[in-house]
Amino acid sequence: MSTAPNPIDLQKHLSGVDYPASKDDLVKAARDHGAGDDIVKALEAMPDREYDGPNAVSQAVTKR
Question: Cβ distance 43 to 23 under 8 Å?
């Protein structure tokens, strides 16, 4: 039932993030940029590790 968020919306809410970034950093950045629950939940469901860039985040979110 749950689908991955739109990659463009995801990256819009992560603008300004300095990579590498931890999962917690990404969740905080998304919340700070007004991301919806779908994006926040998708980020919270990712493995807890460092992400080296937007592509790594998008891949982790879509592999759920």
Answer: yes
CA angle 42, 47, 51 (to 5 degrees): 90
Length of the chain: 64
Helix (H, G, I), strand (E, B) or coil at 50: strand
| Residue closest to 54 by CA, chosen among 3, 13, 24 | 13
What is the per-residue pLDDT for 57?
A: 97
**Region 49-56: what's the mean pLDDT?**
97
Provide CB contacts within 8 A for 26, sequence distance 6+.
14, 17, 43, 46, 51, 57
Question: Is there a contact between 57 and 17 (Cβ–Cβ < 8 Å)?
Answer: no
pLDDT tens profile 9-49: 999 999 999 999 999 999 999 999 999 999 999 999 999 99
